[in-house]
Amino acid sequence: MRIRPFDFKAAVSLQDALIQLDQSGPDAKVLAGGTDLVLNMKKKKILPSTVISLHSIKNLEYVEEKNGMIHIGAMAKHADLAINPILEKEVSILCQAVGLIGSWQVRNIGTIGGNLCNASPAADSAPPLLALDASVVIATLKGDKIIPITSFFCGPAQTIIKSNEILKEILIKKPVNPSAGCYLKLRRRKAVDISLAGVAFQAETDPTGKRIGQVKIALGGVAPTPIRVPDAETCLTGLCIDDAFEKIALCAQKAARASKPIDDVRATADYKSTIVNVFVQRCAQHVLTTLKNQRGKS
Amino acid sequence: MSQLDIVGKSFPQIAAREKATGETKFVTDLVLPRMLCGQVLRSPYPHAKIISIDTAKAAALPGVKAVVTFQDTPKIKFGPRSEDWTIFASDKTRFHGDEVAAVAAVDADIAEQALELIRVEYKELPYIISPLDAMKQGAPLVHEDKPGNIGAEFKVEAGDVDRAMDDSYVVYEDHFYTNQVYQAYMEPMSALADVDLSGRVSIWTGTQIPNMMRMTYAKALGMSPDNLRIVVPEYGGAFGGKMENNIHLIAAVLAQKSGRPVKLVNTRHDDFLAGNPRVPMHFDIKIGATQDGILTAKDVKVVGAAGARLVYSQVIVATACYRVDSLYRLKNVRAKGYTVYTNSVPTACFRGFGNSQSTFVLESALDELAIQLKIDPAELRIKNGMGSNETSVHGWKIGSSGLRECVTKASKAANWSQKKNNKTPFKGIGLACCNHVSGNRPFAREFDGGSGIVRVGKDGRITVFHGESDMGQGQNTTFAQIVAERLGVTMDMVNVAQVDTDISPFGLGSFATRGTLMGGNGVLAAAKDAYDQMADIAADMLNTKAADVACRKAMFFSKSSSETKISFQDIASEATIRHHGAPIVGTGFYKPPTELPDPDTKKGNISPAYPFGCQIAEVEVDPDTGQVSVTNFVAAHDVGRAINPMATVGQIQGGIAQGLGWTLMENMAYEDGKMINADFVDYIVPSCFDIPDIKAILVEPIEPNGPYGAKGIGEPALNPTMAAITNAIYDATGVRIKELPVNPQKLLAQIQKLGKHVKE
C-alpha cells in the first residue's frame, strides 16, 4: 500500500495552479485535504503523474457574507465549517452535515471542495448544498464560471469539472424569510462512518411566515449522484405550516420512491429506501416544528 | 494472608508511558541492518488449481533479493493440531488470500512491483463457504483426503438426556448462528526473520505462544527446535488471533533464501484475508427445565467452519460443545460437534474460544425458559448456578464460585427488578451469565502449569523471566506485582524481560485465560525461591534464623526485633559477593491440580480455577429503523482476587466493547467466495460513542489455587455480552435474536411483523 512516485507541485496562487494543471496533462490531480486522493493513490485506483497542491495558496478557506450571498472558499475545512457562526446562523444544515464527516482527524484536514470534487454519491456535504440550491464557482484559465450544484455531479467520482479546472468557491443564497434545515445520515455506528443514506431537508417560509415558501429535499447515497427529489418537495410547497404536517407521510413516500439505491455490503437497497422514508419524515417534522415555533416567537 | 502491599492495588501498566509517548518499539518498528521488505502474493480465488507460476520477471527486477513459492520450502505438511498446512499452496489454493508466493526486496515499492510481475495461471474450482453446504453430499472437497469436508468430530454425553427431556415441564428448542468476526487488534500480524551463518533462524514476532509456535515451526522448516529462536517484542494486541500463521514462516523462508533479515508486515487487507478470525458456528439447541426452573437437560449440535485448514477450530468446536455445561448444575447433557472445512480463511482462537459462541446460545435459551416459566431471569440463574466446592457434570471441581454474588450485585447495581417490571416501549434490559477456565489442561497435552525465573542482580534490580505473553493486556505488570509482593520490594525495582525462547522458561503462552493464574503462580514460585536464598543471607547478617526474617518495602528485618534493618540492595550485593559474582536466580514452577479429560467421557477437572460473571445490558431500539443503542451496562465478574483492579476493570470494559461490536455490527462478509469488506471502511468496529457507561463490579472470592487468590478475566469479560444485549433487545421488542450480528433491517421487519410498530 505504497504510493507510486509522482511529481509534486505546490501552487502559490490559483492562477499558478491552473497553469501548472494545464501543463501537466489530463492525469494530473489537485490536492486539497487529500483524505480521498491519498488513499486512492495508495490503492492504485489512480496513478497521477503530477499532484498539484493548493495548500500554499493563501485565502481559500474563507466564509464570507456579501450582498445576500454566502461565499465559502473551496479549501475551507469541515471542522471549521461545522462551527462557523455565519453558517450556523443562516444555513445550519450544512454545519450539521459536515460535522458528521469521517473522524475529527478527517474533518481537521478534509475540505468542502475536495468532498464535492471527489463526487462520492454518499458525500455528506452534497445533500445540504443541493437542498440550499447552492452554486459552485469553477476557476479556468479563461476566467471563472458559475454552475448550479444541481448540474455539478455526473456520476460516481465524476463531475463536470474538466481536468484543467479547479473548484474555487461555493455560493449559497442567504435565506430571506424564516428558514430551517435538517440533515440525517444512516450510519452503522455512532461516529466515523460513511453515509449509507443521507437526507437533507431545507424549508423557507413565504414572507408572511405562515406558509411554506419553498422546500428542498436532497438525498445522498441512494443514487449514482446526490439527488434532489422535486416530487416530494411539491407535496409541501405553498402549504400552511400546520397543514404541511399532514402531508409529511406522502412527501416521504415520494422521496423514497425517487431514490434508486443499490444493494451493497453496507445495506440492502430496500432498507436504504425505507430509511429515506423514515428520515424525510423525521427531518420534515423537525423543520416544520422549528418554523412553527419561530413564527410563535416573532 | 498477611497484609498486601502491592497485590490488590491499581498500577498503570509498566509499559504505559512508553506506549503513550510512542517510544515503544513494536514488531512493525524493528529494524536490522540490511533488512529486506517481504510481501506475499495471495490467491485471488476461493478455490483454484495452480497450473503454473512464473517468477522469472519478478526475480529479475533490480532490488529483488528473493522470490519464493512452495518449491522453495521443505514441502513438509504440518500444523499445530492437524497436519494439513504447507508453507505455500502447492497444487491448489483453498481460500481467497491463500499464500501462493512471496518476495523480499530492498524496499516496499520494489517488493510490491515484484508481486505484480509474478504470473500465476489458475483454473478456478467450485468452492463452498457455508459449513452446512460443505457437509452435503457432492460438495467440492477442500482437502481430497477429507471426505464430507469433515475435519473433526466431537461427542460428549452424560446422564440420560432423552429421559430428562421427556420428564421436563418445558423444553425449548431452536437454531442459532454466530458469525465470523475479526480480532481487529491494533498491529497487524508481522514477523522479522534472520538466519545466522550456521543456519539458525530467529523470528521476532507478536505471538501468544512463543514456545509452542517454535515446535510447530521447527517441523515446518524441517529443522530441530533448538535451531529456531522466537523473540516476542512489545506487540499490538492479539485477542486469540496471534498464534501460528504462515506469514511468520514465509518471512523465515525469505530470509533463508536471501541470506538477509526480512520483515514481513501484513497490510490490514491481508490481515483480514489471511489472519485467523473467529470460528463461525451453527447451533441446534434443546434445553429442558422443571416447573420450578431447575434445568433438566441440554442437547446441542454444533457445526463450525474451519476454513481451509485446521488451526485450533476443532478444539474450539469441542469447547463450544461442553464448556458452558459447568456454568449451571446440569446433570444430563449431550453434544455433537462437527468441524468442517470450507473455502474461507482458516478460523481459530478469538477471546472466548467457542465458549462465547455457546454462551450466547445457552443464555438466549435460558431467557426463553424464564419467559415460558414466568421466572425472573436473574432468579433462574441463581437457582441453577454453580457454587463453590461443587463438581460439575464433566467432573470440573469448582473451588470458588462467585456466580450468585455476581448476579445479585449486578442486579442491584443495574436496578434490574424495577427496570424489568416497568416496561417502556422499545427500551429493554437483559441479563446473561458466563463461566470460563483459567487454563485448559487438554490444550497443550504435555503439561499445563507455569514457571518463572527471578534474577536479582548485585544492585538489587530484579528481572522476571516468563514464557507467557503480554499482548497489551497487562500481564507483565501483574507478574511484576506478584514478584514485588513476594520479595517485599517496590514496583520500580522489578523489570519484566522480553520473552525469548533462548532465555525464558518454556511457558505455554497466553490463551485460555491462563496467564494470571498459571504464569502468575509460576513467577510466584520463582520469587519464593529467590526470596528464600536472600532470606538465608539476611538471617546471617541479622543474626537470626531465616524463618524470623521478613522483607517489606525493600528492607529486610527480624520479625522478633525489628530495630535493625538491612536494605534489599545490600543483601543482593552481599549475595553476589559471597557467590563470586553469581546473581541470585530463583526458579520455580506451578503444577496445577488438573486432569486430562477421559477420551471417551470427557470427564476430568481441566482447570485449577473457574471464573464466573454476570452482565446486564440496557438498550433502546429505534422502532422505525431497527437500529439498536446500548445505553447502559453493568458487569459483575468473579475474578478471584484482582491483582491489579485497574487492569481488571480495563479487561471487563474491553471485553464488553468487543462483544458489543460483535453483537451489533461486526461481520466478515463474503460474495462469490471472497471477503468483500476486508478493511475498516466496511468492517465496522464500535467507536467510543457506541459504548455506554460500563459499571464493572469485582467479586473477589479468594481462589485457593490462584496466586494470591486470583483467577483470570480475559475471556469471561466478553462471553456474556452478546446475550445480555440480545436479551435486552427481546425485552424491548419481543424479537429473539438468533443470528449474530443483529441486522437492523431484519430486526425492523420482525418488529413490524409483531405489530408493535408505533406510527407517529
Describe this structure in words.
The complex is a heterodimer of chains A (298) and B (760). Chain A is built from 12 helices and 14 strands. By secondary structure, chain A is an alpha+beta fold. Chain A has 3 domains: 7-53, Uridine Diphospho-n-acetylenolpyruvylglucosamine Reductase, domain 2; 63-173, 2-Layer Sandwich (Uridine Diphospho-n-acetylenolpyruvylglucosamine Reductase, domain 3), CATH 3.30.465; 182-297, Enolase-like, domain 1 (2-Layer Sandwich), CATH 3.30.390.50. In chain A, the strands form 4 sheets. In chain A, strands 4-5-10-6-7 form a 5-stranded antiparallel β-sheet, sandwiched between helices. A 4-stranded antiparallel β-sheet of chain A has the order 11-12-13-14. In chain A, strands 1-3-2 form a 3-stranded parallel β-sheet, covered by helices on one side. Chain A is globular. The mean pLDDT of chain A is 97. Chain B folds into 3 domains: 16-24 and 449-590, 2-Layer Sandwich (Aldehyde Oxidoreductase, domain 4); 31-125 and 196-237 and 242-267, Aldehyde Oxidoreductase, domain 3 (Alpha-Beta Complex), CATH 3.90.1170; 281-441 and 599-754, 2-Layer Sandwich (Aldehyde Oxidoreductase, domain 4). Chain B contains 19 helices and 31 strands. In chain B, helix 17 (645-664) crosses helix 18 (721-733). The longest helix of chain B is centred in the C-terminal third of the chain and has 28 residues, at 515-542. At the A-B interface, helix 12 of A face helix 3 and helix 19 of B.
SSE layout and pairing:
The complex is a heterodimer of chains A (298) and B (760).
Chain A: E1 7-10, H1 14-24, E2 29-31, H2 37-42, E3 50-53, E4 63-66, E5 69-73, H3 78-81, H4 85-90, H5 92-98, H6 104-109, H7 112-118, H8 126-131, E6 135-140, E7 143-148, E8 153-155, E9 158-159, E10 166-173, E11 179-186, E12 197-205, E13 212-220, E14 227-228, H9 230-234, H10 241-244, H11 248-258, H12 269-297
Parallel strand pairs in A: 1-3, 2-3
Antiparallel strand pairs in A: 4-5, 5-10, 6-7, 6-10, 8-9, 11-12, 12-13, 13-14
Chain B: H1 16-20, E1 36-42, E2 48-54, H2 56-60, E3 64-68, E4 92-93, E5 99-105, H3 108-117, E6 119-124, H4 131-134, E7 150-158, H5 161-166, E8 170-178, E9 190-195, E10 201-205, H6 210-220, E11 228-232, H7 246-258, E12 262-265, H8 268-274, E13 281-289, E14 295-307, H9 313-322, E15 332-341, H10 355-373, H11 377-384, E16 390-391, E17 397-398, H12 403-414, H13 416-421, E18 427-435, E19 450-456, E20 462-465, H14 475-487, E21 494-496, E22 499-500, H15 515-542, E23 549-552, E24 555-558, E25 565-567, H16 568-578, E26 584-590, E27 612-621, E28 628-638, H17 645-664, E29 670-671, E30 674-675, E31 694-699, H18 721-733, H19 744-753
Parallel strand pairs in B: 1-12, 10-11, 14-15, 20-21, 28-31
Antiparallel strand pairs in B: 1-5, 2-4, 2-6, 3-5, 7-15, 8-13, 9-10, 9-12, 11-22, 13-14, 16-17, 18-27, 19-20, 19-26, 23-24, 24-25, 27-28, 29-30
